[in-house]
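ok, trying the design again with the full structure, not the truncated one.
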């Protein structure tokens, strides 16, 4: 095997592979040696299962039922992403006569859903909500092994340690708490031999990553009541919420705080000077004077020197949008974007940050193809001349007003250079190649 985490290489004969694994399993359970065809991840799991005292003819035990199960599930963190699991895996499971299963960090099954006939078959081996399917309880199996090794894994046919599970194939991936990295449990797809394809492993891993991104949005890093909050999107002059005060900052002070909030490690005077001033004739004395005025405004102890840095974490609305974009939460990012970052600023570093954030969000919106999000961007002051967004909107919502506006923008782009009428910000977008 070239990839020990994939159960069956493309082109391999499932029936022949299953026969080889049955012989290997019998050899292990009878004489305690692992023949060569067994993948290292499975061999290691078999040894762990044997050391835990699991027998090949055992079965899973049901630990939670009825009200106890319902209460435990309702309080579990993965309950918040069950709608996502059902959306991404539920139809696939039902249509393919598979099962969607979710377990906790101890291998205890919390949800098992899917095709009715497959559910009835699964009942015969206690693959049901409330049953413990950890390696120490039932040996090698995808959800139990995934949480044991903290890796996505496939388990095919006789790779399962318990014989009554060997007609099945499953693929599972662990799901982590995005704040602490702690394993919360695993998401699993269980069914027939066709799930041994590498695509099923990649699919379930992608679903687990999507769940982690969703959890990050549902429970973002908490901001203590006294944590300063900087609002700089859509404002030429930022607003700082600090110790119950609402401070409106000058443009230069806004730029300084945005930069220092993005660099908690601090910036030297030279680095801050280059970030703020395109004019190389500006002296360090000018910068020190600005910082002295800002220090008096903020109060003692918040702004340190050598290097210049904030002594407390300052949350900003721009960082929130960036974090949501990185998590793939396009809708949440768009909702948090109230305009370009300090739109009137010409500080070189602020211009780069502003363009990077705007370009990242607009590209995500175009790729996402949500007509409402595209329309919100296109009708905002910063997007009303954005040709790429109007083209994307016309593709998903080809109403007469949208088509008319797109035609006008394309005519403007085609006009001779001296006759173009787009405003500077819109013209910047018009000059870009269509996305």
């Amino acid at each position: 095997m070239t990839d020990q985490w994939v159960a069956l290489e493309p082109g391999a004969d499932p029936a022949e592979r299953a026969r080889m694994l049955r012989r290997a399993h019998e050899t292990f359970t009878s004489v305690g040696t692992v023949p060569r065809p067994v993948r290292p991840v499975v061999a290691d799991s078999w040894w762990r299962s044997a050391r835990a005292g699991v027998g090949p003819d055992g079965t899973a035990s049901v630990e939670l039922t009825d009200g106890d199960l319902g209460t435990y599930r309702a309080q579990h963190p993965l309950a918040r992403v069950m709608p996502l699991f059902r959306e991404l895996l539920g139809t696939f499971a039902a249509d393919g006569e598979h099962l969607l299963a979710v377990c906790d960090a101890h291998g205890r099954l919390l949800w098992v859903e899917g095709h009715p006939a497959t559910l009835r078959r699964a009942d015969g081996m206690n693959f049901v909500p409330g049953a413990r399917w950890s390696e120490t309880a039932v040996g090698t199996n995808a959800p139990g092994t995934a949480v044991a090794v903290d890796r996505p894994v496939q388990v095919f046919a006789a790779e399962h340690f318990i014989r009554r599970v060997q007609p099945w194939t499953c693929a599972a991936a662990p799901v982590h708490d995005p704040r602490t990295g702690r394993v919360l449990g695993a998401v699993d797809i269980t069914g027939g031999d066709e799930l041994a394809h590498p695509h099923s492993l990649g699919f379930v891993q992608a679903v687990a990553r999507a769940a982690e991104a969703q959890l990050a949005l549902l429970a973002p890093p908490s901001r203590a009541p006294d944590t300063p909050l900087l609002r700089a999107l859509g404002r030429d002059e930022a607003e700082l919420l600090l110790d119950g005060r609402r401070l409106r900052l000058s443009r230069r002070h806004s730029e300084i705080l945005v930069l220092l909030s993005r660099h908690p490690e601090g910036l030297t005077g030279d680095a801050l000077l280059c970030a703020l001033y395109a004019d190389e004739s500006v002296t360090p004395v000018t910068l020190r004077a600005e910082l002295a005025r800002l220090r008096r405004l903020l109060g003692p102890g918040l702004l340190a020197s050598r290097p210049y840095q904030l002594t407390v974490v300052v949350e900003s609305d721009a960082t929130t949008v960036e974090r949501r974009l990185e998590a793939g939460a396009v809708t949440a990012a768009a909702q948090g974007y109230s305009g370009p970052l300090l739109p009137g600023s010409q500080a070189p570093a602020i211009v780069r940050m502003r363009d990077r954030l705007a370009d990242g969000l607009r590209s995500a919106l175009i790729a996402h193809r949500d007509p409402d999000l595209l329309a919100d961007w296109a009708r905002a002051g910063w997007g009303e001349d954005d040709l790429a967004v109007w083209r994307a909107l016309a593709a998903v919502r080809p109403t007469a007003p949208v088509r008319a506006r797109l035609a006008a923008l394309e005519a403007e782009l085609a006009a001779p250079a001296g006759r173009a009428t787009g405003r500077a910000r819109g013209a910047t977008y018009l000059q870009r190649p269509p996305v």
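Keeping the full-length input from now on. The CA atoms of residues 330 and 387 lie 20 Å apart.
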